[in-house]
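User: Hi! I have a protein structure encoded as tokens and I'd like to know what sequence might fold into it. I'm fairly new to this, so please keep things simple.
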């Protein structure tokens, strides 16, 4: 036994592990040879022999897993290099700060908090029901195509996103799914904003990213109207861009709101974008079908909803012309927001 343990402990690399594994469970390995002897045993002895071999196979697989874990740990340590002493002073005058997207996100949440909204969160891995069906997005909607949405394999299992039916898992394409979770968890009235990461099959360029951030807003109460929607969004725009900012709503279409709008702003002090109408968000009144999907009576309750891109707001506020700057980890860029 001591010789076996010594042999196992001596394996340090993947090639050594593969050689050892082949000797045990390969086509000409020791365990494979033992398996082949079962056919030569008397019929009465085969069940007991099979149990012993299966037990041995399980023990061998545990040893394999232990060796592989040790090798992976060693490989990771080699990649990381020498340990870093976190007590040492910073090598320069830059000691860290909040990312500009985090700063904008906190500012936006703070503005809506002053209007009575609380922050709600949900998982980034979602089901089609939460991300599409409950939001009144039909099965033939383009957003549900493989070209637009990042789907998981059919055998994926996620404990925090149970399926309602035979549906696929996906990386959420918007945080509107959190609105559904909020309405299922809390009876109206409620006001929530849902900041978080979203994912789409976008080509990365100056204004698009496959990974981006949104803040979705939801207000459900009795007699919520378009006047409330306009008032909430006007307050937000003027807190971010100043009281000289103008707003307008243009009719649009979203499956989960009716009527639906795009909100544009015009601001006098945005550099090259000054005094131009710019689209910044989609919004509208919650479609009654969405309320029915979550068990809320649309005859009694009404609501408003909106979705704002955090990167979009950050780019306008700071005059940034390329979304990729946020993800490049360039200290020359980040130091500007310290």
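Assistant: Happy to help. Inverse folding works backwards from shape to sequence: for each of the 338 positions I chose a residue that suits the local structure. Here it is:
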């Amino acid at each position: 036994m001591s010789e076996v343990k010594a042999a196992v402990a001596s394996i340090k690399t993947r090639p050594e592990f593969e050689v050892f594994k082949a000797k045990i469970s390969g086509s000409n390995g020791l365990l494979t040879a033992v398996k082949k002897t079962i056919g030569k045993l008397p019929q009465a002895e085969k069940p007991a022999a099979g149990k012993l071999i299966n037990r041995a196979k399980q023990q061998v697989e545990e040893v394999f897993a232990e060796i592989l874990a040790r090798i992976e740990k060693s490989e990771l340590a080699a990649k990381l290099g020498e340990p870093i002493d976190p007590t040492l002073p910073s090598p320069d005058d830059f000691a860290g700060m909040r990312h500009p997207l985090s700063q904008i996100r906190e500012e936006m949440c703070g503005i809506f908090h002053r209007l009575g909204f609380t922050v709600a969160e949900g998982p980034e891995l979602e089901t089609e029901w939460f991300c599409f069906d409950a939001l009144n997005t039909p099965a033939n909607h383009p957003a549900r195509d493989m070209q637009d949405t990042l789907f998981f394999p059919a055998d994926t299992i996620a404990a925090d996103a149970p399926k309602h039916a035979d549906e696929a898992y996906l990386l959420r394409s918007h945080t509107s799914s959190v609105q559904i979770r909020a309405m299922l968890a809390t009876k109206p009235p409620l006001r929530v904003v849902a900041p978080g990461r979203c994912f789409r099959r976008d080509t990365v360029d100056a204004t698009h990213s496959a990974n981006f951030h949104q803040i979705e807003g939801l207000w459900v109460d009795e007699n919520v109207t378009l006047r409330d929607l306009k008032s909430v969004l006007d307050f937000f725009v003027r807190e971010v861009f100043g009281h000289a900012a103008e707003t307008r709503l243009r009719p649009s279409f979203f499956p989960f709101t009716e009527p639906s709008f795009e909100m544009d702003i015009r601001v006098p002090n945005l550099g090259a974008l000054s005094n131009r109408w710019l689209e910044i968000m989609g919004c509208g009144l919650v479609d009654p079908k969405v309320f029915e999907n979550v068990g809320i009576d649309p005859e009694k309750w009404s609501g408003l909803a909106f979705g704002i891109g955090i990167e979009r707001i950050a780019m306008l506020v700071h005059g940034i012309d390329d979304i990729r700057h946020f993800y490049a980890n360039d200290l020359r860029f980040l130091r500007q927001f310290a």
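A useful reference point when you look it over: The beta strands are 118-119, 125-127, 169-171, 190-199, 211-221, 246-254, 257-266, 278-286, 302-309. Feel free to ask if any position seems puzzling.
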